């Protein structure tokens, strides 16, 4: 019985993973990094202000996770969802927010809740980026921890 219980505990530990093993950061530029805090929570960290960008947790009480992102030397664009929605592929995603971060002026757009308004703003500002899934965009980036 003890062997079975021991094997069960080891099996559960292996399947659930260990906290911290999936954490990493990807450098966007000298000021900003993308942090994966755990597999379903991705945030932008501002190294100068020690703050986290693209997070509506102050307004809805829940952390927002980046689900789509892209950047170049001038701009970073992202789409966030509540962490709960980002984890649940089967749920209707109703709380999406879009963001534009000007990497030259360090100005973050106000939250944009309409995909159409977001695309119009990209065209207006002549930003030649398209959102990509988070995993696909950061896949080949160097991880700094």
Give your account of this protein's structure.
- The chain is α+β, with helices and mostly antiparallel strands and 145 residues long.
- It has helices spanning 2-16, 57-60, 83-87, 115-124, 134-138; strands at 24-27, 32-38, 41-46, 51-53, 64-71, 75-82, 97-102, 107-108, 132-133.
- The strands form 2 sheets. The chain has a 5-stranded antiparallel beta sheet. A 4-stranded antiparallel beta sheet has the order 1-2-3-4, with no helix packed on it.
- The protein is globular and about 35 Å long.
List segments where confidence is low: pLDDT < 50 over at least 5 consecutive residues: 2-19
Mean pLDDT over the full residue set: 78
Shape call: globular
**Number of helical elements:** 5
What's the count of strands?
9
Q: List the strand order in the largest sheet.
A: 8-7-6-5-9
Distance between the termini: 41 Å
How does the major sheet shape up? 5 strands, antiparallel
The SSE order reads HEEEEHEEHEEHEH
Roughly what fraction of the amino acids lie in strands? Answer: 25-35%
Protein name: Lipoprotein
């Amino acid at each position: 019985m003890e062997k079975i219980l021991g094997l069960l505990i080891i099996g559960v530990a292996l399947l659930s993973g260990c906290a911290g093993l999936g954490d990493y950061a990807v450098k966007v530029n000298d000021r900003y990094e993308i942090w994966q805090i755990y597999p379903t929570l991705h945030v932008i960290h501002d190294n100068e202000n020690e703050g986290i960008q693209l997070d509506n947790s102050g307004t809805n009480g829940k952390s927002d996770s980046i689900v789509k992102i892209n950047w170049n030397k001038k701009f970073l664009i992202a789409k966030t969802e509540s962490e709960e929605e980002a984890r649940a592929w089967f749920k209707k995603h109703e709380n999406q927010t879009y963001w534009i971060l000007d990497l030259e002026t360090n100005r973050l757009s106000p939250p944009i809740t309409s995909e159409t308004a977001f695309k119009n703003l990209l065209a207006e500002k002549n930003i030649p980026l398209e959102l990509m899934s988070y995993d696909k965009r950061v896949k080949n980036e160097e991880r700094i921890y």
